[in-house]
């Protein structure tokens, strides 16, 4: 089950949940309306098989692994700050959480932030062109598998990026509400 909510308008610390009072939770169906897909790999003992099945089904032919913590990631503080800058990518951002936890913040059609908690077993797909950012939580540790179609493209394009082709396509497909998709909750 996804754990997502509208983010407090002025978060004091990016690593905290920053839930406003009252908290308004967001489900997978709402996330899917603007292109965000959430999956839960339920059999963590056999996650390789389930992850490979997902990769084949969706055409992700390249993967790597990254550990984000002070001991493993050079220039940790600078990287965490950079990941938290609002940006888009020209390709989907696909992350499977092996260990640890963190937050992806995404913008909905009303330009409001929604915070998505990701933990071990969660697989999140953010479509190309969606404004988003990432941060670790107070545990300062997450290990993820990153999936790509073809050669990885690492470039983040900070906001504003309204005239970029990926953003224009995203807005046309999702932000204007022209297409509603069914949510994915398991593989």
Automatic annotation (TrEMBL):
Main location class: membrane
Biological process terms in GO annotation: L-methionine salvage from methylthioadenosine
Any one GO cellular component localisation term in the record: nucleus
Keyword Amino-acid biosynthesis (UniProt): yes
Cofactors: Fe(2+); Ni(2+)
Amino acids binding Fe(2+): 87, 89, 93, 132
Primary enzyme class: oxidoreductase
Pathway: Amino-acid biosynthesis; L-methionine biosynthesis via salvage pathway; L-methionine from S-methyl-5-thio-alpha-D-ribose 1-phosphate: step 5/6
A GO term, aspect molecular function: acireductone dioxygenase (Ni2+-requiring) activity
Pfam family, one: ARD
Residues the record lists as binding Ni(2+): 87, 89, 93, 132
Highest taxon listed in the record's lineage: Eukaryota
SUPFAM superfamilies, alphabetized: RmlC-like cupins
Topological relation to the membrane, as annotated: Peripheral membrane protein
Keywords: Amino-acid biosynthesis, Cytoplasm, Dioxygenase, Iron, Metal-binding, Methionine biosynthesis, Nickel, Nucleus, Oxidoreductase
The keyword Metal-binding is annotated on this UniProt entry: yes
Enzyme Commission number(s): 1.13.11.54, 1.13.11.53
InterPro entries named in the record: ARD, ARD_euk, RmlC-like_jellyroll, RmlC_Cupin_sf
Cofactor note: Binds either 1 Fe or Ni cation per monomer. Iron-binding promotes an acireductone dioxygenase reaction producing 2-keto-4-methylthiobutyrate, while nickel-binding promotes an acireductone dioxygenase reaction producing 3-(methylsulfanyl)propanoate.
Function: Catalyzes 2 different reactions between oxygen and the acireductone 1,2-dihydroxy-3-keto-5-methylthiopentene (DHK-MTPene) depending upon the metal bound in the active site. Fe-containing acireductone dioxygenase (Fe-ARD) produces formate and 2-keto-4-methylthiobutyrate (KMTB), the alpha-ketoacid precursor of methionine in the methionine recycle pathway. Ni-containing acireductone dioxygenase (Ni-ARD) produces methylthiopropionate, carbon monoxide and formate, and does not lie on the methionine recycle pathway.
Family: Belongs to the acireductone dioxygenase (ARD) family.
The name this protein goes by in its record: Acireductone dioxygenase
Lineage, broadest ranks: Eukaryota, Metazoa, Ecdysozoa, Nematoda, Chromadorea
